[in-house]
Amino acid sequence: MGAPVPITDRAGPARFFLKPTQARHRQYEALRAYFVERRPGPAVARAFGYTPGSFRVLCHHFRRDASREFFVEPQRGPLEQPKKTRARRLIVAMRKRNLSVYDIAEELAAQHIELGPTAITEVLREEGFARLPRRKDDERPARRRPEIADRADVRSFHLEPLTFETKVGGLLVLLPLLVKLGIHQLAEEAALPGSKAIPRTQALLSALALKLTSIERKSHVMDLVFDQGLALFAGLNVIPKATFLAQYSDRLSRSTSVRLLRGWLDHLRAELAVEGESFNLDFHAVPFFGDDDFVERHYLSKRSRRDKAVLTFLAHDADADVLCYTNADLRKGEESDEVLRFVDFWKKVHGNVPPHLVFDSKLTTYNNLARLDELGITFITLRRRFDALKQHVANAPPAAWRKIELEGPHRAFRSPEVLDERVQLGKSYPAPIRQICVRDLGHDEPTILLTNDTHASPRAILERYARRMLIENELEDQVHFFHVDALSSAVAMKVDFDVTLTVIATGIYRLLGKHLHGFAHAKARQIFRHFLDTTAHVEIAGERVRVQLPRRAHNPLLIESGLLATPAAIPWWGGASIEILFP
User: Fold this and answer.
1) Which of the residue ranges 98-102, 249-253, 505-509 has the most confident prediction, judged by mean pLDDT?
2) Alpha carbon 64 to chain centroid distance?
3) Contacts of 434 (CB under 8 A, 6+ apart)
4) Mean pLDDT in residue range 104-131
């Protein structure tokens, strides 16, 4: 036998196994060290350059796919795009004729070569061509061009004899209700900006129309610019374009939005009982996707992280089930005091402070809780669970807990146990406060509530806090139907004005639902789908506008509501009336 090979001669080849460079080889060695050699996971992750979390994911995938060929390299696709390669010569020849990427795409399509503008741009960039300078109209190829809509101008609005079809027939159904609410007076009372071409009433109606029809963040307004029904709703010859909507919202300050909210509540309370006996309060972060350095970071629950967002405060009347107040003009450090600004707002509107508020633990501070208590406002809030508090709850004697029965046949957990006691919060809230700990609600840890209500039973307090989910449902409707989260669009609408319009729109839908049997608490998107998402045939004859709706299953409920029983005079039509007809 020969002499043994020195260890030093093996060190070089050993590095191939100990320090793998290829991704699949590194995965193999790491998994072998974990499953065969039984080395600890964190040590293996550290040795092979993984984070502990990513190595756990790798192990999970291996366990799931171990029966397959886990370490086989996947088949790679082609390194070039055949369509682009075949068309490259034609694209270069067309660009030498000064054709744009859209012109080139059309010519290629005529030759049965389907290649989009993006792919054509990539080919031109690879071939070293720069972007074409903007051309004049006479320099462009002769083809059919988009039609140019008229400029919105109330002086060009005339109710001349005319017949047309509209996609937004449901908007015209809302006109009698808007007249009843005095929407035209609201624009005047709030002193909204306006011009001779687009007065304040028409401006408000134009923005509100797009909100009521669930058009996402006004980004598709250009799709309906030729819809005569939309223009008729606002009392204009055509609906204003995207540029006007963006510029108009920039003219509105926070004080204007407050006047608009205050006036809206006055008009709504004349038709709907909004007594403000109990409010649900919450924050909602509207995500922002732009590059504005002045937009601050807030926690986004959908992403489970902090990111750029516009923080919005909301107040929801729990009994009327309607939004009453909003503010998206908040900066960091101002959030905790917004509850006091809402109290001041409601006092000016209603004449007294709101008697009852319900909110979660992150809405305000203990100092402000003391201030609410001084104002005579009853509140219920969630308390954050820190380690000492968890230990206190865990050490409570079993005899201190008592079982309660919650109402509601659909509750999964109807018999929780509560610990009702008085505690001290420290210097920020000097007086003793009532603390209710609740367990057996389906959560891993007890729910802890703070309240200055010393008379209500634990069951009543717990059931009232559970109704705070109403504002969560309202937020869901705002996001999915009114699109408050859709900031990336053709219209740079100011968020504060947008959410103010949302408050008005939700009130309109809530009032309409009150008149429709069985829809008093339906969401806006449900009412829109069943009653308003419809086309219509419109006939203008003199001082009468007749709107013929198509046959729909829920039309009888509209007829029974009494809202459309008689023709209604529309002030922004110069007194002309609207008549809704059913087949």
Assistant:
1) 505-509
2) 37
3) 420, 421, 422, 450, 451, 452, 453, 454
4) 89
Question: Quick check: 286 pLDDT over 90?
Answer: no
CA distance 36 to 52: 18
Contact present, 187 and 200 (Cβ < 8 Å): yes
Query: From start to end of 332-401, where are the E strands?
Result: 356-359, 378-382
Overall number of domains in the chain: 2
The last residue of one of the domains, among 406, 433, 467, is 467
Q: Are 285 and 310 spatial neighbours (Cβ–Cβ below 8 Å)?
A: yes
Q: Domain range for residue 443? A: 377-467
> Considering the domain boundaries, does residue 97 fall inside one?
yes
Q: Exposed/middle/buried for 180, CB within 10 Å: 0-12, 13-18, 19+?
A: middle
Is residue 49 in a domain? no
Query: CA-CA-CA-CA torsion for 406, 407, 411, 414, nearest 10 degrees?
Result: 30
Final residue belonging to a domain, choices 445, 467, 489: 467
For the ranges 122-136, 371-385, 410-424, 470-484, the lowest mean pLDDT is seen at 470-484
Angstrom distances, CA of residue 10 to CA of 48, 93, 184, 305, 345: 20, 61, 89, 49, 80
Angle among Cα 280, 281, 283 to the nearest 5 degrees reads: 145
Q: Is the pLDDT of residue 527 over 90?
A: yes
Would 444 be classed as within a structural domain? yes
Q: Which of 260-274, 304-318, 535-549 has the lowest mean pLDDT?
A: 304-318
What residues contact 517, with CB distance under 8 A and at least 6 apart? Answer: 557, 560, 561
Whether 132 and 100 have beta carbons less than 8 Å apart is answered as: yes
Q: Under 8 Å CB-to-CB from 282, ≥6 apart: which residues?
A: 313, 314, 316, 359, 360, 363, 468, 471, 472, 475
Q: In this structure, what token pair is assigned to residue 136? A: 């004049």
Beta strand residue intervals within 74-219, DSSP E: 162-166
> How far apart are alpha carbons 501 and 493 in whole angstroms?
11
For the stretch 60-82, pLDDT in tens is 888 877 655 666 666 776 667 78
50's enclosing H/E stretch is: none
What single-letter DSSP state applies at residue 151?
A: P
- Identify the bridge partners of residue 314 per DSSP, sorted by sequence position: 282, 326
User: Is 232 among the domain residues?
Assistant: no
Nearest to 59 by CA among 6, 48, 378: 48
CA dist 574 and 157 (Å) reads: 10
- Residue 535 CA to residue 533 CA, distance in Å, equals 7
Query: What pTM, to 2 d.p., does this model score?
Result: 0.77
